[in-house]
Structure formats: C-alpha cells, structure tokens
Amino acid sequence: MSPLLITAAVLLVLIALAHSCLGERLLIGPLLKDPNVVIFKRAPLTKNILRFAWHITTVAWWGMAAAILDMQGGENLLSMYIYIATFVVTGVMILAWTKGKHVAWIVFFAIAGCLFAAA
User: Fold this and answer.
1) Which of 51, 70, 80, 83 has the smallest C-beta neighbourhood within 10 Å, fewest atoms?
2) Which of 3-7, 14-18, 29-33 comes out lowest in average pLDDT?
C-alpha cells in the first residue's frame, strides 16, 4: 500500500473527527441551544436534521478514507481523479468563503496532493 494513500486516508479520518467534535462543541451545539433561532421553534425536526446533516459529513469522509485505502496506484484512476477534484474543490470553497481563516483548506489540498502524487 502506498504511504501517500495511507497519509491521505489518515488526514481525511482526522479532519472528519475534528469536524464532528469541534463543530458540535463550537457551532452546532450552541446554535441548537439558542432560543432566538425562530426556525427551531416552528419546525422542531429541523434541529435533528441540522445535527445529522452535520455529522453525516464525517461518516461520508470516513467512507471515502476507506475507499482511498482500497485504491492502488494505477488502478481505479478515474475514481482517484474524482477524489482529487472533490478535495481540490472543497479546499477552494473553504479558502474562498472564509478568506483563508478556516485552515481546513490546507488539509484538503494536502489530501488532494497525496492522491495526485499516488496516481
């Protein structure tokens, strides 16, 4: 197994874990407890939808990490390039929308770089 694929998968697992833990503690939890958010009063199910939508990203990233570990250098090249494009676009979106203040873009570019080098 390529050390680059392992590195990409580990980075993805770690950023997913950070996304869930820090997001819950610093963003989702406080937002859901805020009594001034009107939509939560009108549609209580919205709280659960917001929480599971946030955390389902973590599950998806863990699944992607597992799929990356299953790849070999020359095999699944189309899938590899799809993942590379996905992580580059993710990095660009985070970089643009936060003007570089949210450092996750660095991790997503690193993941894309590892995959590109392994391809």
Assistant:
1) 70
2) 29-33
- CA angle, residues 33, 36, 40, in degrees to nearest 5: 65
Distance from the Cα of residue 87 to its chain's centroid: 9
Distance of alpha carbon 63 from alpha carbon 20, whole angstroms: 15
**Structural domain of residue 51, as residue ranges?**
3-118
The gap between the terminal CA atoms of the chain, to the nearest Å, is 12
Q: Tell me how far CA of residue 26 lies from CA of 21, 37, 62, 89, 111, in angstroms.
A: 9, 16, 21, 25, 25
For the chain, helix, strand, coil in percent to 5 are: 80, 0, 20
Q: Which two tokens stand for residue 42?
A: 């009108």
* CB-CB neighbours of 24 under 10 Å: 16
Structural domain count, the chain: 1
Global pTM reads: 0.90
Write down the residue that tokens 């992580």 correspond to: 87
